[in-house]
Specification:
alpha+beta, Double-stranded beta-helix, six-stranded mixed β-sheet, six-stranded antiparallel β-sheet, 7 helices, about 25% helix, binds fe (ii) ion
Length: about 325
Amino acid sequence: MNQSGQYKLAPLFSLTGIAAMEFCENTLFSQSKIIGLADLRDANTVAVLSERAGTIFSDAVKKIKDVLADDMVGIAAVDIPLLYPNDKTVDAIAGALLAVSIAQHVMPSLLDRENGTPFSIFNASQKNSRTLDSVGIKGVSPTDILDFHSDGSIHDGLLSIPKYLFLYNILINYHNKGNFYWVPTQTITGIKEYIDSFGERDDYIFDLTPTVYESQPSQIKAILAHRARTSIFRRVGENSIATFMNGTFRGKHDDIDGAAIEILAQFRTDISQNDCRYYVPQQARRMIFLRNDCGFHARDVLDNPIEGLATTRSYLRSASVEGHPVGYIEAG
Ligand SMILES: [Fe+2]
């Protein structure tokens, strides 16, 4: 899938080292010790960091917001420069804190239900990838092939499509990192016919891709699987349709002939073969912002892990509070 030549590179730029250092030195240290990601449980700390990020990085924030406001571009990537070359740990923490601070300015986010932070943190190891494979959980470990999909958020049994997503790779210990992809809904061949065909009702069943929490690297703490009844298309403005597609499609709730399953399979094929597709090469210290409600995302399989390292990938993910309700979680 990594035929970068045929796809468009998403808007991608770097923060300046001077501004990044100014932010870190004035904001991230308490009594000359760097604060931790867990300190972002505190809403006041998050508010202070995001406000300062909005001031110091006002140009970057504007660029990101401009891209995200455009349904037809909808994905932007921003690199964080090296900050503390003499201390890898401080450098990694500072990079992650800086990324979250900017993200919280661009898109205030839902709290992680385990940690109470406005992001979730995922650590993958070769060992837990094997564990997930052995229990038949697909689509969550770094080596799985991810189909194009959108992400949902669940609150009090209701399913919503977050408008924005933010991803930040703290580290990717693979030789072949591949790309992250985004396809704008409006450009998909035959989109009008698909909208007519599926309608805008919450009549469709998806078994959502499970969320995996880990307490320790290689220990899988909880796998939360959900069956959702939802719309695939939902009108959210005069000229705007939000889309949802995630996990395994089970068809229309009362569908016995499987017609919807066939049409959705064709829709997925059409997305994966769509001429218009943006890509971002996956790299450590790279933030990715994307519109989740008007496009579908996927990424290449991570391949060829660097030998001898316990953690293969560590990343942060946030979903915006802003979003569109589309369905609900079925009991059981
Ligand atoms: Fe996703």
